[in-house]
Structure formats: structure tokens, C-alpha cells
Amino acid sequence: MALRSIVLPSFYQDSVALMRVAQALRGGEGVREAAALMGTPSNHGILAQAGLASVVIEKAGPNDLILAVLADSGSIAEEALAEAQELLFRRRAPAVPGTAASPRSLDAALRLLPGANLAAISVPGPFAKREAMRALRSGLNVFLFSDNVPVEAEVELKREALARGLLCMGPDCGTAYLNGTPVGFANVVPRGRVGIVAASGTGLQAVACRLAGLGEGISHGIGVGGRDLTARVGGAMTFLVLDLLKRDPRTEIIVLISKPPEAEVLAPLERALAEMGKPAVVCCLGAKPPAKSTARWVETLEDAAQAAAALLKRAPWAPRPFSDPEDVRSRLARLQGGARLGSLLGLYTGGTLAHEAHLLLEPLLGRIPYNEERGDSPHRIVDLGDDAYTVGKPHPMLDPGARAEWVRRAGGAGEAGVLLLDLVLGKAAHADPAKALSEAVRAARADAAKGGRVLHAVASVVGTERDPQGMAGQIRRLEEAGVEVLPSNAEACRLLALLLKPGLAGRMPEEAS
């Protein structure tokens, strides 16, 4: 086995480009492992854990690119490094001979596109403030995809944005729809009458897709960052966006998706909603609705979409645990079969979906540790898109490999009896996320069976048929691997709870009993 590494000084590349280079190398014959990472301290730790550290890379800094390959022989590793450099330099070259190369700075980009009014920024968190501030001071709205951005930096950026009348979406903003233009992870949904203000990404995607399924569309969908409704940030972007949607003639109804607002922000938020002059649906996951509100408060993302659609149609609506109770009864009869099912392991790529699952399931199953929390509970839910799991790595919606590995491990060891999963489709997401997930589920279930265990998998898919991946095909691939696919995350959680605790049927009126 041979390890070879090189450092390319001052050669910044975003995580998506580096992920693709590493993936290309790993597919080579004789290559055991490969990495393409910027030389941040955390990435040095990752390389060490992966057995890819060497003296060659010790002095590499955050602006330097590290390429490392572990292969069957030195010649194979060196060939792989050469291939990596060719891929990277080809990416920097002009797409068409005789044309300008891709810009490598904000100033260069503005010279190529002087009419631009939005900058999408995806750099490591420690550098995000500098780039975002430069964009704001250049008169650009900012879509800040970067995570691990300190809250102090977020506050400064949003103050600057407000002073200039600009949007600062994020940090950790994954999705936006601006005048019908999707930005980031975005599903193909129709334009319509619903304006959405959301924390960051998958909550917005889930509601937009559900609305599309109900025959409605969105006017705008704007992510403001998961900390915007904290006292520290003060709802800076939420209030700006509400004002924009209030004045937008295309928007007839507002949907607000967030974690619970802190007490200092709740009263001003209620006043802003009351002054909208338009109906509003609020889904602050885990929040207790105020005693009096002009808005319709709901508990789940699915309910947010259904309540908004009903308001638009002036139709009555009430939340229901399952959209097709007969189908749920049939699934339960087929899956329970008297076998002991063990515990829950939730493995999510969407943070809002993971948070929603945790809120729905803890009252039904008891305490459930979240991410790295510890305790004597047999259950666990992990948000693999959380900052803690993405330092120096691509988001799991871009690279499904990390989650697939978690799934495979669940089959070979532990007490997991039911896996709870999400699958998020759309532009910018992986081209075929169901492939890696279904293969991992198949392998995990086979390993569990060898050990005399039963392992079920329950999932929901966020997407539309117009998404590049095609929703029906992705669902079919999962179902062929034995995954139970429900219409929403909330319904998937409830089915899982009934699998683990059949006696809960009495707490879900007539729907599943």
C-alpha cells in the first residue's frame, strides 16, 4: 500500500468541486482511498483519521488544497494525483477556447456580469463573512450557503444588509426561489400564490413540494437562516422578507417555517403578521402557539402546506395523522408479524425534517438522543447535514455515501429495528440519491437477517415528478429495496411509532386502529 500527497498552494476550490474530484479518484482501479480538501485544521484531522496524513501536507494552510491518495502501489497513487490535477486545472480553464476563464473573484465576476444583483457564496465558514460583506457592499443580495458561520458574523452581515435594503439569506441557507428562479437545492415547483419564509432549506422544500402536489405554487421562497428568530439576530431578515411579501401583489398567503422564535422576537413577529393584511400559516416546529394570533399555527410541514392550500381554496381543513388510513393499516399488518423490532435509528440529510421527526416521536417513544447526545435510550436521530457532520465534507444531499455507510453499519451491529430516512430531490442535489440509499438498505437488511434480526426502513421523499431525478422512479427504487415510503415525513414518523409501539394506535384516532 502506498500513500502519496501533494499541496497546491493558494488553490481554493469549493466543496462540491472537491467532492467530485475525490469521487473520480476513488473509482480508479487500485485506489483504496482519496481526498481533496482545503488545508483547514479540521480537514487535517479528517485526513489523519482516514490514514491520509503525511509530512508532505503538514504545513498546508486553509487556502491550500491538499490531494492525497492511498493506493495499491506508488505508481497508481501518482497517476491518480496527476489525474486530480488535470481535473482541477481543466475546471479552471475557459469552457470555450478564446473565451474568458471562469472568474475567481467577486470583482472579476462583476466585470463579466455587471447587472448581477445576487451573489451566492459557498466558502468555508471562517471566510464567509469577508466574502458576504464584500458582496453586500457591492450592492448585491447575498445567498449565503456556507455553514459554520459565527453568530457574531451573521449579526454584522444582516445589519449591513438592512442598512442597504438588501437580503442576506442564511447562513447555512440551502434553498431560495426568487421571482421563480430557484437557487441552491431547489425542486421544480410551479409559481403560484404562496410566499414562504423559511429557516434554511428542507422545510421550505418540503412545503413547496407538498403545495405542488396539492395543485398550488409559490410566489417566492426565501431562506433566512436557522438563527434568524433568536434574540441575538432579532428576526432581521424575517421581518424584511415579510414586508417584501406584504407588498408583493403575486403573494396571497404567507407560510412561515422556523424553529420556535425566542420570547424577545415572538411579540414583534405576531405584530408583523397581524399587519400583513394577508392570511398567514405559521409552522414554528416545537413552538407552543400563542394564546391569541391572527395566523394559523400548525405542528408539521405537511400541515403547513395543507392549511395554506385550504385557505387559498376557502375550504375547511383539520390536521389528520394519515392521508390514507387503510393503506397504513395494511402496511402495519404486513410488517409487524409478531417480531421484536428493537429500536429507532433516524438518519436524515435534511435538518428541518430531522428536527420535525424528533419533535413528533419523543412524545410517543420517550426520550430520543439527537445527534451526539448520549443517554440510556435505545433510540437515536441523527441530522447528517448538521454542521458537526459536514466540516470539510460535502453535504449528504450532494454526496449520499456517508449516510449509506451509516445505514450499512446499522445492519451489522446494534439494536436498530427500524430505520427512519428522508430523501431530498431537486436541482443541485445528487443525481440519483435513491441508488446509494437503496443499495445500503438492502445490504443492511441482509446483514440483520444473518444475525437473526428484523430491520425495517421507513422513509419519505421530498420532490416532484419534474425534478431532475424524477420522484416516481426514486420512490420505486426505494420500495424495491423494501423501504416503506410514506407521503410525508410526519406520516413516516407516525407509521414508525406504530411499528415500535402498536398500542399507540389508540392515540391516533380511527386512522390506524
Automatic annotation (TrEMBL):
SUPFAM superfamilies referenced in this protein's UniProt entry, alphabetically = Succinyl-CoA synthetase domains (SSF52210)
Q: Which GO terms describe its molecular function?
A: succinate-CoA ligase (ADP-forming) activity; succinate-CoA ligase (GDP-forming) activity
Domain of life from the UniProt record: Bacteria
Q: Per the record, GO CC terms? A: cytosol; succinate-CoA ligase complex (ADP-forming)
Domain named ATP-citrate synthase/succinyl-CoA ligase C-terminal is located at 347-495
* Biological process, per Gene Ontology: tricarboxylic acid cycle
One Pfam family recorded for the sequence = Ligase_CoA
What is the name attached to this protein's record? Answer: Acyl-CoA synthetase FdrA
Report which gene this protein is encoded by: fdrA
